[in-house]
Write a structure and sequence with these properties.
Layout (H helix, E strand, L loop, with lengths): L11 H11 L3 H8 L3 H22 L8 H12 L4 E11 L19 E8 L5 E9 L4 H6 L2 H7 L6 E3 L10 E2 L7 H27 L6
Parallel strand pairs: 1-4, 4-5
Antiparallel strand pairs: 1-2, 2-3
Helix pairs in contact: 1-3, 4-7
Protein backbone atom coordinates (compact mmCIF):
# COMPACT_ATOMS: atom_id res chain seq x y z
CA UNK A 1 0.00 0.00 0.00
CA UNK A 2 1.28 3.47 -0.89
CA UNK A 3 2.12 5.81 1.97
CA UNK A 4 -0.71 8.36 2.36
CA UNK A 5 1.66 11.33 2.77
CA UNK A 6 3.69 10.73 -0.40
CA UNK A 7 1.47 13.01 -2.47
CA UNK A 8 2.60 15.95 -0.31
CA UNK A 9 6.27 15.53 -1.15
CA UNK A 10 6.61 14.08 -4.66
CA UNK A 11 5.88 14.95 -8.25
CA UNK A 12 5.15 18.67 -7.96
CA UNK A 13 7.51 19.23 -10.88
CA UNK A 14 5.88 16.39 -12.83
CA UNK A 15 2.46 17.97 -12.36
CA UNK A 16 3.68 21.31 -13.69
CA UNK A 17 5.42 19.68 -16.64
CA UNK A 18 2.30 17.71 -17.48
CA UNK A 19 0.39 20.99 -17.72
CA UNK A 20 3.17 22.68 -19.74
CA UNK A 21 3.91 19.79 -22.09
CA UNK A 22 0.32 18.77 -22.82
CA UNK A 23 -1.49 22.08 -22.49
CA UNK A 24 -4.19 20.14 -20.65
CA UNK A 25 -6.87 22.05 -18.77
CA UNK A 26 -6.38 22.31 -15.03
CA UNK A 27 -9.49 20.21 -14.44
CA UNK A 28 -8.06 17.41 -16.61
CA UNK A 29 -4.76 17.49 -14.75
CA UNK A 30 -6.62 17.58 -11.45
CA UNK A 31 -8.75 14.57 -12.32
CA UNK A 32 -5.69 12.58 -13.37
CA UNK A 33 -3.79 13.48 -10.20
CA UNK A 34 -6.82 13.44 -7.86
CA UNK A 35 -6.19 17.03 -6.83
CA UNK A 36 -8.49 20.03 -6.76
CA UNK A 37 -7.98 23.08 -8.94
CA UNK A 38 -6.80 25.31 -6.06
CA UNK A 39 -4.05 22.85 -5.12
CA UNK A 40 -2.90 22.58 -8.73
CA UNK A 41 -2.82 26.38 -9.16
CA UNK A 42 -0.79 26.74 -5.95
CA UNK A 43 1.64 24.01 -7.02
CA UNK A 44 2.12 25.44 -10.51
CA UNK A 45 2.76 28.89 -9.08
CA UNK A 46 5.32 27.70 -6.52
CA UNK A 47 7.25 25.62 -9.05
CA UNK A 48 7.21 28.41 -11.64
CA UNK A 49 8.54 30.87 -9.06
CA UNK A 50 11.33 28.42 -8.23
CA UNK A 51 12.20 28.13 -11.93
CA UNK A 52 12.14 31.91 -12.28
CA UNK A 53 14.58 32.26 -9.39
CA UNK A 54 17.04 30.08 -11.31
CA UNK A 55 16.51 31.77 -14.68
CA UNK A 56 19.61 33.96 -14.54
CA UNK A 57 21.78 30.90 -13.96
CA UNK A 58 20.76 29.35 -17.27
CA UNK A 59 19.65 32.32 -19.41
CA UNK A 60 22.59 34.64 -19.85
CA UNK A 61 23.38 36.99 -22.74
CA UNK A 62 25.23 36.54 -24.99
CA UNK A 63 25.58 32.95 -23.76
CA UNK A 64 27.77 30.65 -21.70
CA UNK A 65 30.37 30.21 -24.44
CA UNK A 66 33.16 32.51 -25.52
CA UNK A 67 32.00 35.40 -27.70
CA UNK A 68 34.27 34.34 -30.55
CA UNK A 69 32.70 30.85 -30.52
CA UNK A 70 29.17 32.30 -30.60
CA UNK A 71 30.10 34.42 -33.62
CA UNK A 72 31.76 31.47 -35.37
CA UNK A 73 28.66 29.28 -34.94
CA UNK A 74 26.45 31.96 -36.48
CA UNK A 75 28.97 32.52 -39.28
CA UNK A 76 28.82 28.85 -40.26
CA UNK A 77 25.12 29.14 -41.09
CA UNK A 78 25.37 31.55 -44.03
CA UNK A 79 28.63 33.47 -43.75
CA UNK A 80 27.16 36.40 -41.80
CA UNK A 81 29.94 37.81 -39.57
CA UNK A 82 29.99 39.27 -36.05
CA UNK A 83 26.55 37.97 -34.98
CA UNK A 84 26.01 37.32 -31.26
CA UNK A 85 22.25 36.71 -31.31
CA UNK A 86 18.99 36.71 -33.25
CA UNK A 87 16.08 38.64 -31.74
CA UNK A 88 12.32 38.51 -32.26
CA UNK A 89 9.05 38.46 -30.35
CA UNK A 90 6.35 35.83 -30.12
CA UNK A 91 2.83 36.05 -28.71
CA UNK A 92 1.85 33.77 -25.84
CA UNK A 93 -1.92 33.51 -25.59
CA UNK A 94 -3.49 34.35 -22.23
CA UNK A 95 -6.96 34.51 -20.76
CA UNK A 96 -8.49 37.98 -21.04
CA UNK A 97 -7.42 39.90 -17.91
CA UNK A 98 -9.92 41.93 -15.94
CA UNK A 99 -9.54 45.63 -15.35
CA UNK A 100 -9.09 48.86 -17.25
CA UNK A 101 -6.05 47.64 -19.23
CA UNK A 102 -7.70 44.56 -20.74
CA UNK A 103 -7.63 46.05 -24.26
CA UNK A 104 -3.84 46.53 -24.05
CA UNK A 105 -3.41 42.77 -24.19
CA UNK A 106 -5.30 42.34 -27.49
CA UNK A 107 -2.73 41.87 -30.26
CA UNK A 108 -3.02 42.53 -34.01
CA UNK A 109 -4.49 39.04 -34.49
CA UNK A 110 -7.29 39.98 -32.08
CA UNK A 111 -6.51 37.64 -29.21
CA UNK A 112 -5.16 38.37 -25.73
CA UNK A 113 -1.46 37.74 -25.30
CA UNK A 114 1.87 38.61 -23.75
CA UNK A 115 4.38 39.73 -26.39
CA UNK A 116 7.58 37.93 -25.38
CA UNK A 117 10.97 39.01 -26.69
CA UNK A 118 13.69 36.39 -26.98
CA UNK A 119 17.28 36.33 -28.17
CA UNK A 120 18.85 33.01 -29.15
CA UNK A 121 22.19 31.70 -30.34
CA UNK A 122 22.98 29.55 -33.38
CA UNK A 123 22.07 26.37 -31.48
CA UNK A 124 18.58 27.72 -30.67
CA UNK A 125 19.55 28.19 -27.03
CA UNK A 126 17.75 31.16 -25.47
CA UNK A 127 20.14 33.79 -24.11
CA UNK A 128 17.70 36.58 -23.17
CA UNK A 129 13.98 36.84 -22.41
CA UNK A 130 11.65 39.77 -21.76
CA UNK A 131 8.17 38.53 -20.86
CA UNK A 132 6.25 41.44 -19.36
CA UNK A 133 4.66 43.40 -22.22
CA UNK A 134 0.99 43.29 -23.31
CA UNK A 135 0.18 41.89 -26.74
CA UNK A 136 -0.60 45.28 -28.28
CA UNK A 137 2.96 46.57 -27.74
CA UNK A 138 5.16 46.59 -30.85
CA UNK A 139 8.33 44.48 -30.98
CA UNK A 140 10.56 47.51 -31.55
CA UNK A 141 9.25 49.29 -28.45
CA UNK A 142 9.92 46.23 -26.33
CA UNK A 143 13.47 46.08 -27.65
CA UNK A 144 14.16 49.78 -27.07
CA UNK A 145 12.97 49.48 -23.46
CA UNK A 146 14.98 46.34 -22.75
CA UNK A 147 18.16 45.96 -20.74
CA UNK A 148 19.86 44.28 -23.68
CA UNK A 149 19.26 47.40 -25.80
CA UNK A 150 20.94 49.54 -23.17
CA UNK A 151 23.91 47.19 -22.94
CA UNK A 152 24.39 47.04 -26.71
CA UNK A 153 23.93 50.77 -27.25
CA UNK A 154 26.59 51.45 -24.62
CA UNK A 155 29.04 49.10 -26.33
CA UNK A 156 29.18 46.48 -23.59
CA UNK A 157 29.32 43.66 -26.15
CA UNK A 158 31.30 43.42 -29.38
CA UNK A 159 28.91 42.13 -32.01
CA UNK A 160 25.46 42.57 -33.52
CA UNK A 161 21.97 41.14 -33.26
CA UNK A 162 19.88 40.27 -36.30
CA UNK A 163 16.23 41.35 -36.39
CA UNK A 164 13.41 41.53 -38.92
CA UNK A 165 12.03 44.62 -40.67
CA UNK A 166 9.89 45.45 -37.65
CA UNK A 167 12.97 46.76 -35.89
CA UNK A 168 14.81 49.95 -36.70
CA UNK A 169 18.32 49.34 -38.03
CA UNK A 170 21.03 50.21 -35.48
CA UNK A 171 24.82 49.77 -35.41
CA UNK A 172 24.20 46.83 -33.06
CA UNK A 173 20.95 45.53 -34.64
CA UNK A 174 21.00 44.73 -38.34
CA UNK A 175 17.79 44.34 -40.35
CA UNK A 176 17.10 43.42 -44.02
CA UNK A 177 17.23 45.91 -46.89
CA UNK A 178 13.89 47.00 -48.34
CA UNK A 179 13.83 46.75 -52.17
CA UNK A 180 17.41 45.44 -52.28
CA UNK A 181 19.77 45.77 -55.23
CA UNK A 182 21.76 42.74 -56.41
CA UNK A 183 24.56 43.00 -53.83
CA UNK A 184 22.03 43.72 -51.09
CA UNK A 185 20.06 40.61 -52.06
CA UNK A 186 23.04 38.46 -51.06
CA UNK A 187 23.10 40.27 -47.71
CA UNK A 188 19.36 39.73 -47.25
CA UNK A 189 19.68 36.04 -48.09
CA UNK A 190 22.45 35.48 -45.54
CA UNK A 191 20.57 37.62 -43.00
CA UNK A 192 17.34 35.62 -43.44
CA UNK A 193 19.04 32.24 -43.11
CA UNK A 194 20.91 33.32 -39.99
CA UNK A 195 18.03 35.15 -38.31
CA UNK A 196 15.78 32.13 -38.91
CA UNK A 197 17.34 30.55 -35.81
CA UNK A 198 15.11 32.62 -33.56
CA UNK A 199 12.00 31.45 -35.44
CA UNK A 200 13.24 27.88 -35.11
CA UNK A 201 13.67 28.49 -31.39
CA UNK A 202 10.05 29.61 -31.06
CA UNK A 203 8.91 26.54 -32.97
CA UNK A 204 10.90 24.18 -30.78
CA UNK A 205 9.71 25.88 -27.59
CA UNK A 206 6.04 25.75 -28.54
CA UNK A 207 6.31 22.17 -29.78
CA UNK A 208 7.83 21.12 -26.47
CA UNK A 209 5.52 23.17 -24.24
CA UNK A 210 2.16 23.06 -25.99
CA UNK A 211 0.53 25.10 -23.21
CA UNK A 212 2.11 28.13 -24.92
CA UNK A 213 -0.07 27.59 -27.98
CA UNK A 214 -3.39 26.97 -26.21
Amino acid sequence: MACPFLRDVVDEEALVLRRAFSGAFLYSVGDAEQLNKATICCTIRSVCLAIKALADVFISFPGHRRLCDIKEEFYRIAGFPNVIGAVDCTHIRIKAPSGAHEADFVNRKSFHSINVQMVCNADCVISNVVAKWPGSVHDSRIFRASEIYQCLSQGEFSGVLLGDRGYGCQPFLLTPFTDPQEAQQAYNHAHARTRARVEMTFGLLKARFTAFTN
